[in-house]
């Protein structure tokens, strides 16, 4: 059969369904990854399902989000994660070893394989031809136990790249251009497949910058074909035997096509506080910059930091600007140090940080109040940096380094002209990637064979089967684009309770309304109302688990982000869509009840439910769910449902 690259990889892994857009398909998972903020619940759920050992080819547990060990809580979690990896047969990556996506790319990402990860930027290795999808923690636990992963078959969109990037334009600008054109909702229900003559002009790390940030488009995944550049990258990582040639058929049919002429790309920035608020840097030039951070899973590689290091060599960071460099992995840190670039950057005034997510989720390097921060990260949602009134710009390393030198936003082409002696650094791969592997513990090297749980490790909350009556007070009415950072913030003071759901729940939606958690507990049940794209952002299942713990029975939204909607099913909360008129009419405090017998309706495939508001007026709410999702909802969530199933049969 002729087809797209996506269809070919899916066909190879299909265990249920047909590759028709919108149809639910079940696929076999080859590799899983999890990180420290989502991982404790993954392993607690794996334990609750009474699994003996990991069934996938690779399972990897990373410690990257919360690596600063302020008190016993993060350390407890890291010790628990190491013990779980050892007990069940997963790789364990210690704190300081780097960000999950970077370390996974270096060590395990392989063309043609499927990867499921409990982190929304899991699609990163799509740049190597791997089909990688982000999901909630319980989906990871089930896949690790040998169960299939179920997802709605996305539309496959062809992004045709033509031409070649000019000097100072980068892969980051390519994905920012995609966001400028399509918005943060433009990829919902889609996989972006990159094709065309421009592909071969991009190296694997440039491709993974693009696939990484496909997540900001709301896409299920993004993927590149493989070629000599893929083979070259794998060989430099010492994994050339994992190369597989992959390409779409010449007559592959796509749902849509977008063309990007790389030669027309220029330096761009995403302005505060949404990744699609993109303009050319020249439009905002002159904005004073207080802080610059280089790093993250988007631009934290050795090759990403090298151009900035070259721009900084022999120069000084502006005295009014702090420049922090946090490489994405220990491999990148070690190589920068061995090649002398760390010393050059430090001489220029760089504050060098450990390899961690850190500042990306507000853990460390929080900007000063009423200040501007320029970051090479992928997200700039308001408050994500750790302070409410933040102003975070997203850019390439080149634009970030230029801002650090000038003390204000400046197009690097203009800075080069002003300085007269600054060359475009270009993008080059090292001869070989040679960081030490000491911080990756293989299953054979495991140092634990039983789970070690400190006092910060609680139990997995469970919900009973779905009631026939669902409804209650509208405890919160929210606007469009509410993120999982709004629902459960990832700052260290809050997310250190990630393994203690009763405590973590006290912070639920407190960034939207600080009275919410207490009101929800007092009400002992209720519903939420939201606008478009509810739950965009991370894969954090706590954003469904904590509302469930507080008694939220249903969310009425105009639309949902993909992973969060799956998480709502997984934790027994009914996700219903409403139209604009109904949304406008509902007020916070209104009593919303589903008139029909929802338990029966969910089981029987009903798609429309009548809702009664204050007993005064009625409207229709829609449930868009597969039969499997309906069964999960009826059982009270995926853990209860999975316990009823016999996995791996
Ligand atoms: Fe870490 Fe930020 Fe990447 Fe998430 S987006 S994995 S927090 S660096």
Please outline the helices and strands.
Elements: H1 5-13, E1 14-16, E2 24-27, E3 31-34, H2 36-48, E4 58-62, H3 72-88, E5 91-93, H4 100-107, E6 114-117, E7 131-134, H5 137-144, E8 149-152, E9 155-162, H6 171-182, E10 190-195, H7 204-212, E11 221-223, H8 228-236, E12 256-261, E13 268-270, E14 278-280, H9 281-284, E15 291-295, H10 296-299, H11 302-312, E16 322-326, H12 330-338, H13 341-348, E17 350-352, E18 372-375, E19 391-394, H14 397-406, H15 412-419, E20 440-441, E21 471-477, H16 484-487, H17 492-495, H18 501-504, H19 516-523, E22 526-530, H20 542-549, E23 552-557, H21 562-570, E24 574-577, H22 580-585, E25 591-594, H23 598-603, E26 608-613, E27 617-622, H24 627-635, H25 638-644
Parallel strand pairs: 3-4, 3-6, 4-5, 6-7, 9-10, 9-12, 10-11, 15-16, 15-18, 16-17, 18-19, 21-22, 22-23, 23-24
Antiparallel strand pairs: 1-2, 2-8, 5-20, 13-14, 21-25, 25-26, 26-27
The structure holds iron/sulfur cluster.
Iron/sulfur cluster binds near residues 65, 99, 357, 361 and 378.
Characterization of the model:
- By secondary structure, this protein is α/β, with parallel strands linked by helices.
- It folds into three domains: 5-261, Aconitase, domain 3 (2-Layer Sandwich); 268-419, Aconitase, domain 3 (2-Layer Sandwich); 471-644, Aconitase, domain 4.
- The chain has 25 helices and 27 strands.
- The longest helix has 17 residues, at 72-88.
- The structure holds iron/sulfur cluster.
- Iron/sulfur cluster binds at residues 65, 99, 101, 119, 121, 296-297, 357, 360-361, 377-378.
